[in-house]
Write a structure and sequence with these properties.
alpha+beta, Beta-Lactamase, Heat Shock Protein 90, 3 domains, 5-stranded antiparallel sheet, 14 helices, about 40% helix
Length: about 475
């Protein structure tokens, strides 16, 4: 016997009131209207019963294009997707709930989209009266953002890593981290610092991580040493920060480490150069009074004194400049020769020939002073003092009687005035004869021959003499 309907249109059955189908339908429609994500209700034949504005907006559809239509016909059959047919026709017939069902599809109206579909089958009382609820979550932008973030992270020159806050184990490391540490991602993920680094270093890294978690502030470590897989020690500048979940609970530590080993070595090298420069400058300054006094003793007038002193100091400054340009590693012999000959060279009165030789800082300064005296003498009294005179400077590598190598530099003047040997040795002659043996342990044979001055200089190979020789390159025949 049927119960009479009450005022609300509901049927009374014992103590329960069952809402009418129309009321359920209206309630469901209002409910899905308030859902922000795309939502669609299908009947047992997969026709659209309800669709919310978010669905219409996301897939560029109108109500008239959807209501009562088969899902597979929507948007010029854009929803006729094999994965969706399998979800509706196979999976939901066997299960009531499906979560996170992934669909990747290129829609004609909106382009490529990646979606996660949560689906639920609601069984009806009548045959083929089941309803299917589909909630659609677009993950395209999120995945694009993730991919972009991955690309940025992978291409950063600094090491980037993530550790779980709970156990401080690595969960992610970028390519720069692999290259720096020498370990692959598969080696690192799931491990902690104690699995790779000496205990002292691992204690330090772990202690910093715990301080970061406790303070919940960015921690900058200006310099920290780290031993890599090959046993080398690198120095890092590291920043660490805590990442949180939606509830504010710490989940991970994000770290960014920049390898500053080269910069640190460069800074140490600069300090070394500054100390070397300080030492050199002090030596130069100490020499100047001696040079001034000796120059005064050999000068006949104040003008002669000023000119000679200026030339000698300028020669020292030129050698200092060449060494500075080479960061005090040494100077090419050809550069020293050319610079000293430059004020008097015409293109036809000088000849320079020899392999590419690099002298040490000590040898460079001593050689510059010796060549300056030889050039000055040639310009005042020798081959560079008259047209037709010529100076030849050549060098080669030769064996000494002891079997060790040495560099032999030959200075030869031709075509100049007749030469008379000086009655006494002045300051210039003393510099030529004595400076090379005293400073770098070399040899000098200076001859005042009648047809031109000849000087043979022997420079040993080693830290204070010749540092490098390249026989494949030559400086050319003529000085500038």
């Amino acid at each position: 016997m049927n119960e009479p309907p009450n005022r609300s249109g509901n049927t009374v059955n014992g103590d329960r009131q069952i809402p009418a189908v129309a009321e359920i339908d209206a309630f469901l429609a209002e409910l899905i209207e308030t859902v922000f994500q795309p939502f669609v209700v299908l009947d047992a034949r997969f026709h659209v019963a309800h669709v919310n504005p978010a669905f219409l907006e996301a897939f560029r559809l109108t109500t008239s294009e959807t209501r009562g239509k088969s899902l597979f016909e929507l948007g010029n059959r854009q929803w006729d997707i094999p994965e969706v047919r399998r979800l509706l026709g196979e999976i939901l017939t066997q299960r009531r709930v499906v979560e996170g069902f992934r669909v990747d599809h290129d829609f004609e109206r909106i382009g490529k989209r990646s979606m996660l579909i949560n689906a639920r089958r609601i069984a009806g009382n009548e045959p083929r009266s089941d309803m299917l609820l589909l909630a659609i979550n677009h993950i395209t932008e999120r995945e694009d953002s993730d991919r972009l973030l991955d690309q940025v992270m992978e291409n950063l020159p600094a090491m980037v890593f993530l550790k779980r806050a709970s156990d401080l184990r690595f969960v992610r490391v970028n390519r720069a981290g692999e290259q720096l540490l020498g370990y692959s991602r598969s080696d690192l993920i799931g491990k902690n610092d104690y699995d790779f680094f000496p205990k002292e270093q691992a204690d330090f890294f772990t202690g910093v991580d715990r301080e970061v978690l406790a303070s919940d502030k960015v921690r900058d470590i200006a310099e920290e040493p780290i031993r890599t897989r090959d046993g080398a020690t690198h120095y890092l500048r590291t920043s660490k920060i805590v990442l949180h979940d939606a509830d504010g609970k710490p989940t991970h530590i994000l770290g960014v480490s920049l390898d500053i080993t080269e910069r640190r070595e460069a800074e140490e090298h600069i300090k070394l150069l500054m100390r070397e420069l300080d030492h050199r400058v002090k030596n130069v300054l100490a020499r100047i009074p001696v040079i001034a006094m000796c120059t005064r003793d050999g000068s006949g007038s104040m003008d002669e004194l000023v000119k000679a002193l200026e030339g000698r100091i300028l020669s020292m400054a030129n050698a200092h400049e060449l060494l500075s340009l080479a960061q005090w590693h040494g100077v090419a012999l050809s550069d020293i020769v050319r610079r000293e000959l430059a004020p008097y060279a015409t293109g036809s009165n000088t000849n320079v020939d020899g392999a590419h030789i690099v002298l040490s800082a000590e040898a460079s300064q001593a050689m510059a002073m010796v060549l300056h005296e030889l050039v000055t003498n040639a310009a005042k009294y020798g081959a560079l003092s008259i047209p037709g005179g010529r100076v030849s400077v050549r060098w080669s590598r030769e064996k000494e009687a002891t079997g060790s190598d040495r560099l032999l530099i030959h200075w030869e003047e031709t075509g100049g005035p007749l030469v008379e040997a000086p009655s006494h040795s002045g300051y210039g002659t003393s510099v030529v004869r004595d400076l090379i043996p005293y400073e770098i342990g070399g040899t000098v044979d200076l001859v005042f021959a009648a047809d031109g001055v000849r000087c043979k200089i022997g420079v040993p190979f080693g830290p204070k003499g010749v540092r490098h020789v390249d026989p494949a390159t030559r400086p050319g025949d003529d000085a500038p």
